[in-house]
Amino acid sequence: MTHVTERWQLKGKRALVTGGTKGIGLAVASELASLGAEVFIVARKQIEVSTVTGKIDSSCGMACDISDRLQREKLVSAVMKQWGSLDILVNNAGMNIRKPTTGYSDDEYDIIMDTNLRSAWDLCRKLHPMLRDSKQGNIVNISSVAGQTSVRTGVVYGMTKSAMIHMTKYLAAEWADDNIRVNAVAPWYISTPLAEVVLRESEYRDEVISRTPLKKIGDPADVAAAVAFLCMPAASYITGQTINVDGGFTIYGF
Predict the structure, then answer these.
(1) pLDDT tens for residues 128-154?
(2) Alpha helix locations (H) across 45-144?
(3) Is 204 annotated as catalytic?
(4) What DSSP character marks residue 214?
(5) Which of 104, 157, 170, 252 is catalytic?
């Protein structure tokens, strides 16, 4: 029983979660902490970080705009100073601007790319030494079904999420000898403040549900459970994979 229990918990692990004060990121941080991990939570606003870390046991954090290279460097230094080691990196922070392709400005393109993709790529590289030294390092990238099929708007967002899936495969192969597993989770619409803005339109919400075999919008806890599983010893033979947490949407598409 002890062996079984150890395979399904994260006691003693140290995890960094970006975008960890709202929606999916908050659910992931809470789930990892509930399974025994210490969690370092990152978000843009210090007041939000302070509020969340005050509610989650064994957590700490800092304000950081991960789209900014210099702030990412400060984040890596802070994790090193706080812990000196790292077992889990969850690249969750992201953003979207929904509009027709010809409507994007260069600045909008840049901020989506920097926030969703460049930040994840850079943090993977910069935190690689600590993850390697863990001997059981784990990276989980929060992608999206928009990286696998068209969801009508947000082409730049979809590009970043598709690239994240391919980055996951490359790093999984390259860093396997460093005992770092790299996987991704790809959600469909999840009940978060950002998603609810879009789903307020009843006709669109009805169509989303009609194209989702489980006939419901997902919950942040559904995504958090998949992330936690991928970080556990029980998933020790899984790497380079993308788990769709989508209620079956990618079976149909729109």
Answers:
(1) 999 999 999 999 999 999 999 999 989
(2) 46-53, 69-82, 106-113, 119-134
(3) no
(4) T
(5) 157
